[in-house]
User: Fold this.
Amino acid sequence: MFKKILIANRGEIACRVMTSARRLGIKTVAVYSDADARAKHVDMADEAVRIGPPAVAESYLLGDRIIAAARRSGAQAIHPGYGFLSENPEFVEAVEAAGLVFVGPPASAIRAMGLKDAAKALMARAGVPVVPGYHGERQDAEFLAAEADKIGYPVLIKARAGGGGKGMRLVERPAEFRSALEGAQREGQASFGDPACLIEKYVTQPRHIEIQVFGDGHGNAIHLFERDCSLQRRHQKVIEEAPAPDMPAAVRSAMGQAAVDAARAIGYSGAGTVEFIVDGSGPLREDGFWFMEMNTRLQVEHPVSEAITGLDFVELQLRVASGEALPVRQEDLSIDGWAFEARVYAEDVPKGFLPATGRLDHLRFPEGAEFGPGSVRIDSGVRQGDEISPWYDPMIAKVIVHGPTRAAALNMLSTALEGCQVTGSVTNLEFLGALSRHDGFRRGEVDTGLIARDLDTLVAGAAPSRNVLALAALGGLDLVRERTGDDPWDRLAGWRHWTDAKQYISLEAGDRRIEAQVTGLGKGRFTVDVDGGTVALGVVPLGGNGVRVELEDRQLTADLLREPARVSVFSDGRCYTFGLPDALAEAETDQTGGDTIIAPMPGLVRTVLTETGAAVTKGDPLLVLEAMKMEHTLPAPRDGVVAEVLVAVGDQVTDGTLLLALEPENA
Assistant:
């Protein structure tokens, strides 16, 4: 076994690898960019090496610097995590040429699976079923459009070197094909340096089911059952589970065997995932699944498979990479219970899941294991006070639960998500909670179109009740904090000598301003006039941010978090945050409505589709902004004429940057 390894990654996966390495007595070396100098994975490691500035092309993608750091630190092996260089065969060869061990498959296996078109041809020769489509070399648009016509719409355009939903477009009509192809090619070039695409038949009610495989250098290959990753938005996974609901034993056996055949066909070693597209229009069938791609690395969602098998996949990776044979055989494996994983991101769900940034001023997770087995497990690479930067994936945490049945595990997931508290950045927590409670999902009716079909319901955040507004008013006025100390006057919050104490506060929720009047009645009792009514309540501090709220007919608990410019109420699994405007500050002059386009998030200007003087119609695409390697099209807010384009292709912009202005409507 190795004595020291370097982890060529960052965030939660770097922390995850370090946890298993530490348990095995292996010392760890972290690498970091300037943006990550104080990151959690740096603090967790035994030592850390700077590799460059924040941009991944100048740091985490520089294999030569990472190899130099490994050699200088005395590491014997490099674990790539996932993403970055984890599926780069040239990096694997360079690692081995430097006399180090790559913790993953051989370069030949990565190369064989790296291009989707070649991988599908190889799988077809190995007897693994593949989706009908065009996987050839010709890339001119007219030819590909003709191939799409032959396949029949709807079709899926996929960057052949793609992954993670990047470079992928669903096309339902021929008229949409060319623009979709151009977008997929741009994303393929930006993310993978390869614009080539393949075209496949789109299964209209698809399920995304993948099989975890492991191989070693001794000719052994096994599968560790399936994961259902059908809950996706924009082709990116949101909630994963293992095993798959309604999976017949015969289909599980057939898919498992196909995945093992795929691994053996390329001489696979280490952890990998064979992904299948499955016909979900009826009961799962042995002839109703097709090879989609193979990820030659550890997957983000690997914890759910660890939960149902009881195995530590990182430990298996390290043992196989050090030359050991797999310690388990296929017949040794069985499924124990059910597991779910939800990915908590800093993203603005109502704005189309736009990635967000911000400082994590308050961060609390439910009690549970960290990077290890347990009924609730939290894998996170950030801590309270950390910044979610525009440079990297905005993941905050993975919430994993393991229960005896699917229903029990899903209840546990809902409860665990309710226990997550984040302020300082918008998150997808409320969306995840709604998804975990979705009736169809709870019945096991999953397919990749579920979120899109019910998106309006899933993203419709609950409006704050009058009770929540009352609590926010009390929290904003700092009337419920447990006060200690020797000064008796400090403990008389809101006290008045001759009359009931009345205080006033303004709360901001989006563009809404809410006025409240709070009357203190003594002994933690208040009335709050807000939102056209009066709330009578008692509040008892429970320590920290917790309070017990006593209403006329019930009691409940909540958390109140007062920060300098905002107050947050955590209640019923939701977070309601209100701004606290400064009454002395001058109001900022509003922009003329509809006359400008402002960057909704930090990103790179990828395409400018208009020019000064051009006439535009409301909804016309004007600019394409790239953030986290995904493209976001910004449309015209109204009919008009472009007065000025303020950015150019290649400009890096920040959140709130003015990008384009229209002539005033009455000009």
